[in-house]
Amino acid sequence: MSVLSPYQLRQQCRSGAFSGNTSGFAPGFVQANMVILPKQYAADFLQFCHFNPKPCPLLGMAATPGAFTMPSLAKDLDIRSDLPKYRVFQDGQLMAEPTDVRDIWRGDLVTFLIGCSFSFEESLLADGLEIRNISEKVNVPMYRTNIACTPAGVFHGAMVVSMRPMKPADAIRAIQICSRFVQVHGAPVHFGDPAAIGINDINKPDFGDAVSIKPGEVPVFWACGVTPQVAIANAKVDFCITHSPGHMLVTDLANSKLSVL
Amino acid sequence: MSVLSPYQLRQQCRSGAFSGNTSGFAPGFVQANMVILPKQYAADFLQFCHFNPKPCPLLGMAATPGAFTMPSLAKDLDIRSDLPKYRVFQDGQLMAEPTDVRDIWRGDLVTFLIGCSFSFEESLLADGLEIRNISEKVNVPMYRTNIACTPAGVFHGAMVVSMRPMKPADAIRAIQICSRFVQVHGAPVHFGDPAAIGINDINKPDFGDAVSIKPGEVPVFWACGVTPQVAIANAKVDFCITHSPGHMLVTDLANSKLSVL
């Protein structure tokens, strides 16, 4: 399965043959977080991404309300069927987790695609660094912080961060590598003392799973793509569609294209 | 005085009108550590610099033994007189600290110039970061570590590091900025726990002066140009001339020319 091209994988999502986690599929290609909002929220959400580029690095936005293509990121895309699994929210409540949203599509829905840490994790692994959540085969631990995002319209909230423990010398190398990837969260925002950014218990993440932190390692924190989901929940939007966690849009864009240096 | 060009400052050194610390002079221009060794040590020392580029980033080497010019770095240079102060060592002992070494110059002496942290400190300050040793008006604290340099011939020893305390977010920014300056020690080699690199008491530096570390800050450690001086002492060379600490060669090379990105 893992040798499928991004296009082939999207076609399998469309036909219903694939509905799993996309981690490890189509290596080398950008996977994206997806947010679909009614038109009345689109301008505020775009501004929120603009004001908070580290947690909300915008990779793409549909050209018009109702559009379900994104030619610059994926050929022959139907955003309504080409992800393996979706989440549908009404008035902040998770209503369904379907594999296709064609039946509930509306002409006023605006699609946003946001960078995902899979892209930089690949470069860290290629450099020989260990990614603890990968070696322990769990989801990356994520935490709510006391770092306030810049609000925009109805969207507001604290930054969510992901954490990967590293020895300091490896953390320095990771900062160098991630600095190249400004469109996928960029350099870390903090390392060391969790309490300094409002995290009370590093062993109890708010999202994802705890990972072990070994002697001599420090926690390193990256701005996380869960941040916009928190802002959307705070905004109490009446309707929203997102990808299901881990079930990303796999694009035709090579990860290396996101590297600015 | 601080508006002197590098050439004018070197001329004042040559005439004896200036023999002070060069910190803050000729802003924007590269200042260099200097090591002068008899020819029989030159190949080993060059190899030591090659093997240990972070503590010993070689900016220049004289074309031939006896040469006292370095056209690529400074016009009309006489390395024997154009630094404000020198140190002369015989069999590892400091013998004199003259302002001119023309009278003891020999045809077998080979000059090496090594990058200095002044270059990256300028870029950190320009970015709005605080450099504690500058704000407290002392020499940067430096420490012997347990990080072994790669030996070359008679030259060997542990890496010496300089330390600047910073908040983690500032340290991340400093790592980005210093990564551009591979010829002036590059990115830090460590942050956080001093004991992890063999430093027993952060308040008792082996060279330079202690600085205050404020709540929320971590010590950040850079490979330091004192490392080659330790290696030279270990090598028990019979004769050596260096700059006097803080009394650097001021070159005509703009600091920005050392930035690779």
Automatic annotation (TrEMBL), chains A, B:
Q: EC annotation?
A: 4.2.1.-
Q: What InterPro entries is this protein classified in?
A: D-Glu_cyclase, Putative_hydro-lyase, UPF0317
Enzyme class, one word?
A: lyase
Pfam (any one): D-Glu_cyclase
Q: Which superkingdom heads the taxonomic lineage of this protein's source?
A: Bacteria
Keywords assigned by UniProt, alphabetized: Lyase
Q: Which Gene3D superfamilies match?
A: PSTPO5379-like, PSTPO5379-like domain
Query: Which SUPFAM superfamilies has this protein been placed in?
Result: PSTPO5379-like (SSF160920)
HAMAP family listed in its UniProt record: Hydro_lyase (MF_01830)
Family stated for the protein in its record? Belongs to the D-glutamate cyclase family.
Name of this chain's protein: Putative hydro-lyase I4W93_008205
**Source organism of the structure:** Rheinheimera maricola
